[in-house]
Write a structure and sequence with these properties.
The protein is of the alpha+beta class and about 210 residues long. About 30% of the residues lie in helices and about 25% in strands. β6 and β7 form a beta hairpin. α1 packs across α5 and α5 runs antiparallel to α6. The longest helix is centred in the last third of the chain and has 17 residues.
């Protein structure tokens, strides 16, 4: 597993200070805030310096693809409770992205064990996207639709870089305790979504 992905999936192990964090492509020293690229062959998320990241911004530049910095909020996201149930997501939050190697959309949800894949009934997902055409241009492999179902049954949806989803996965792994997660875990999750809402621009409807 790359150090970039491990940082999100296993934050507890990332606590000890390392001498320096380096670009996983050219070994240049990295600042605290830096970008990522996805290895399309291994699905690894890799830390990248600005120069290396810019090499892979456009699709078709080899096995790597730069993770963009687009955060959008879809306030009018439409999905019925029946469709959500049909998707078979066993928790309230999941993220969906198109895997170009498989040629289809895949679904994952955060769990204490990490990012857990859920079998996705494609007909149901296509129905959801048809009801939300503004979300259809999500970039394969590097952007995801992060959907959260609130306790009151309402849904929210953000279009986010894929590394944001793994940041949420890391928070769940770090803070989750017992069966229900505990107050610390839910405070971290609520804080994550509050920060996401502040950062995201409203997505215009098609």
């Amino acid at each position: 597993m790359s150090t970039g992905l491990r940082r999100f999936r296993d934050p507890a192990r990332a606590e000890p200070a390392e001498p320096a964090q380096r670009c996983e492509l050219c070994a240049e020293l990295l600042d605290g805030e830096h970008g990522h690229v996805v290895d399309l062959e291994t699905r690894a998320l890799m830390c990248a310096c600005r120069g290396c990241r810019l090499l892979f911004v456009r699709p078709g530049q080899g096995r790597y693809r730069a993770v963009p910095d687009r955060f959008r909020y879809a306030p009018s996201f439409r999905i019925s409770p029946a469709d959500w149930d049909d998707l078979g997501i066993p928790v309230r939050t999941a993220f969906f992205f198109r895997n170009s190697s498989l040629g289809r959309t895949v679904a994952f949800y955060p769990s204490p064990a990490g990012a857990t894949e859920s079998l996705l009934p494609l007909a149901t997902w296509e129905r959801v996207i048809a009801a939300n055409p503004a979300l259809a241009d999500t970039e394969p492999d590097v952007e995801a639709l992060l959907v959260d179902r609130a306790p009151d049954g309402s849904f929210s949806c953000h279009l986010v870089p894929i590394d944001a989803c793994y940041r949420l996965v890391g928070l769940v792994r770090l803070h989750w305790k017992g069966f229900g997660g505990g107050r610390e875990a839910w405070e971290a999750i609520d804080g994550f979504f509050a920060a996401l809402r502040r950062r995201a621009r409203v997505l215009k409807e098609v």
